[in-house]
Amino acid sequence: MAGNVSNTVPAITSSLSQLQALNGLFAIYKKQGPTSADVLNVLKEALLKEAGVKNPNPRKRKNQSLKMGHGGTLDSAASGVLVVGVGNGTKMLSTMLTGSKKYIAVGEFGKATDTLDATGSVTLEKGFEHITRLDVEEKLKAFTGDIMQVPPLYSALKKDGQRLSVLLKKGHKVDAKPARPVTVYNLTLQEFKPPLFTLDIECGGGFYVRSLVDDLGKALSSCAHVKELIRTKQGPFTLEEHALHEEQWTLEHISRSLKTCSEGEQEEDHLKPKKVVT
């Protein structure tokens, strides 16, 4: 492509044109700490700088020189696969919200928090010594298949255009959203070392791991919260095979790993898991 550019046109223009010509989906690794939006802004800034844009402002929404978005928000405390759409690929991000996702979650019995994870304040402490591995495995059956789930208060869900988590931090009173149908394809207990336990989860869109762990604690006559959460798969993208780490957030790496919209759709349909009947 660079060979077709006139010598009078700076190479910078060529790089920006290549960047703006990208259309499709790719996956990046989100580390623990920043929000999904923060990570996307770092990615956009890195790419715009590489293309020679001076003082890029990735948070600027109007007249953006790079159209990019992410699908399926990961909590700040969580890490793992975050799917990014660039160009026309942003139109495919809704597929990422409904496709299959996989998580590894480490929960802790005996303590409940207001955020349902380790970032929140402890709201309740209860004994957990009575809980056995068999008890957990038995209770998990009730959370597999098509179930109803109440989303956590601290979430990306919105009320009057503002995220519930933001409203709560501002001191506003927020009512819980009604229970809604979600699907859990597979749910297994990987490790049990009280008070810690590790779950392997495959679920559909709209599912909250934090709510699952909170509900599990209550079902076992105790309480629990998420201590660590890693998303290992989102749609056709896996953490091991597809997620680009920060040092790979370059035009070259993204161009090589980019799935066009049609490829993304085809692979998503092909890899969508069959529902498990329990």
Fraction of residues in helices?
A: 25-40%
Q: State the CATH superfamily name of the domain at 100-234.
A: Pseudouridine synthase
Portion in beta strands = 25-35%
- Major sheet: 9 strands, mixed
Indicate the overall shape. elongated
CATH class of the domain at 100-234: Alpha Beta
CATH architecture of the domain at 100-234: 2-Layer Sandwich
Contiguous helical run count: 8
Order of helices and strands: HEHEEHEEEHEEEHEEHEEHH
* Helix/strand/pairing category: alpha+beta
The total of beta strands comes to: 13
| Mean pLDDT over the full residue set | 84
How far apart are the first and last residues' alpha carbons, in Å?
Answer: 54 Å
- Mind telling me the C-alpha Rg? 21 Å
Pfam families: TruB_C_2, TruB_N
Domain Pseudouridine synthase II N-terminal: 61-209
EC number: 5.4.99.25
Keywords: Acetylation, Cytoplasm, Isomerase, mRNA processing, Nucleus, tRNA processing
Overview of the structural elements:
The longest helix is centred in the first third of the chain and has 15 residues, at 36-50. Residues 1-12 and 263-278 have low confidence and may be disordered. The protein has a domain at 100-234: Pseudouridine synthase (2-Layer Sandwich). 34% of the residues are buried. It is elongated and about 65 Å long. The protein has helices at residues 11-20, 36-50, 93-98, 133-140, 164-169, 209-219, 251-257, 261-271, and strands at 24-30, 68-71, 79-86, 101-109, 111-113, 122-125, 145-149, 158-159, 162-163, 180-193, 196-203, 224-234, 237-238. By secondary structure, the protein is α+β, with helices and mostly antiparallel strands. Strands 1, 2, 3, 4, 7, 10, 11, 12 and 13 form a nine-stranded mixed β-sheet that branches. A hairpin with a 2-residue loop joins strand 8 (158-159) and strand 9.
